[in-house]
Amino acid sequence: MTDQPEDPRGAQLNTPDRPSAYRHDLDGLRGLAIALVVLFHVFGGTVSGGVDVFLLLSGFFFLGAQIRNADRPGQSINPLHSLWRTARRLLPALIVVLAATTAAAIAWFPQLQSPSMAGQLSASVLYRQNVVLTRQAEDYAVAGSTVSPLQHLWSMSVQGQFYLGAILLVSVIAFVLRRRNSGRTVRSVMLPILLVATVASFGYATWLHGTSQGLNYYSTWSRIWEIAAGGLLIYVTAALAIPAKIKPWLPAIGVAMIVATGFFLDGAALFPGPWALWPLLGAALVVLGGGTGVVSTWLASRPMRRLGDIAYALYLWHWPLLILGLLAVGANAPGKKLGAAVIAASLMLAWLTHRFVEKPLMMKGKRPQIGDHPVRRARADLRTEPAARRRAMAGAALGLVALTMLAAFPVQKHRIELARAEVLDPVDYPGARAVTDGAPVPDGVPYRPGQDLINNMWPLPAQEGCLSISGDDADHIQTVKRYTDESPCVYGDVDSDKSIVLVGGSHSEQWFSPLEEVARDSGYRLEVILRPGCATFLSPVWAMSDRCADWSHAIVAHLADARPDLVVTTSSRPGFENTDYTPDGYVDFWRALTDMDIPVVGIRDTPWLVDDAGDPYRATDCVAAGGDPVTCGPLRERVLSPGDPAHGILESLPGGYPLDFSDVLCGPVHCPAVIGNIYVYRDDNHLSDQFAQTMSAEMKRRMTPILDDIERTGRTREDSE
Questions:
Q1: Residue (of 276, 268, 83, 292) closest to 198 by Cα position
Q2: How many Cβ atoms are within 10 Å of 431's Cβ, its own excluded?
Q3: What CATH number is associated with residue 594?
Q4: Per-residue model confidence as pLDDT tens digits over 462-517
Q5: 319 is a domain residue
Q6: What's the whole-model pTM score?
Q7: Range of the domain at 474
Q8: Residue 448: inside a domain, yes or no?
């Protein structure tokens, strides 16, 4: 991250009326904040509050520079110069880190070669990473092998969006004031704007914390108050007279508050809500201390200032190195040796990036005055100065790299589409048929889907937008294909009067492909009511949200009107001992349907992959690293109870039917990672769609008696009406 003022030499106290009070201690404060971020990310697994401190300092430094320059007589207020200056400060180091991370993913980590990662890559270049993470429902997570190596760039996106908005806002205000010749300053106009922005954003962050903390953490609108508060600090430092006896104590108290944050507060769960005031107040006290006292002297020491110099590059490098390191060693959390290596490598690369990328490419000259022609001057420099030509060539190369990364998402998306369209040879790739039908499994055949594609080869409803998503209302039921032609979310025999409805979350959706074939062959429409992260339940279920409960009640009301011939859902979930169980809330949902004479099929959930320590893992990673396709799968006794926990419950309900495919997915000891040359799981808990397709014949064998029984007992649409 960055919070440096436009003057690259260091921390200017850029208040409108005191433009040049140099503060070495604030350089050191940047160094301290980034050190806490890195240390807590690597060893603490928590949020340190350092990011929040950076956001405050961003507002303090950047807004101070913009306001001061806009109010300076004769100063050009063309926003293009500030935008270009800011881009040259931020983009080169960012592009270098993104390019290095991309190269590592291509060379060694195929699991990172997914459309979601490609989308994050493009979003990081465009400073939209926080928006994309929200849309991908990626709640902020501690370092682990399943976490994005670009997750940390959400804060850069927030800052980039703020910088853009601040530059344009200040330029517009300055233009209007000069045109009217009112005698007012940008400084005076910005004060009420910052006050309103701070209060409004703080209120929004407080409200959203109780509604959707995942969205709250990444939201620009939730974070604005932290940055705007930094802008208000400009005015406080100019107006507040603090007694000399008190000043030296303020930095000591402030630093203590900042350091304590990561030990006592769970920032991922609490920030940017009211608790974020704690580290921000600490940073404000350091600023108000005026550079006095022992602590300020320490912050102004050469080591701390040097750490502050490389803070931006250090922030960029440490997280991808940490995640890639975890992937390389196959760990889900860093140990002492890996953590120390990550920190050492991050410091080295940060210094190199600062020395050979940041400093040479950032703008060092004064801002242009009215009547200046900076473009003409730049052209002249290119003709006469070799250093200018070298900078231009380096900038052009980085621009080309950035354009290449912007193309990553459409390219990867096209590869996914080609893989989805591929029809696997049933002889080479029998999949589940190797277990259910005894199909031979040839040797020497590469496993499918490709490891760089598997994570995003979702069933058809996800591709077409037949899922309720995080931005939808809690009771929303998605009934049309939002990503394609807005036609109904109906599959199978779409013209049939008989219907099957598949309801639940992604663990219901994973059975779509075999169910769709059964519905089509058996003369049933297949409708889907799906919401990722939500099972169907009518009384509280551990780890399931109230939004899912509201959605489940909406489903019952919808089905009461629709009167389908059959509802299919999941019937179990992982328990506290990693074996599966059936929550009472599930049973309540089934009873509500069977009481309405709507039959229910409950499919036992697939194994959730956990290692000996109980941590989730991807079996594909294990196989790619040379592991055995069988033993790379989890132990059966660790992930499944001895019998289907829902079997007896469903059989006791009129119109309840249990289905259990654990005998297909698991042998006596392991649940293999590969069956019939096809990866069974696309991640740590979902079937791959290509494997699920090979379950169609077995699904039909087990569903046909159920459909026959429903028709024999009169539980059909025609009879219910």
A1: 276
A2: 28
A3: 3.40.50
A4: 989 999 987 788 899 999 999 888 999 999 999 999 999 999 999 999 999 999 99
A5: yes
A6: 0.75
A7: 457-610+639-665+685-714
A8: no
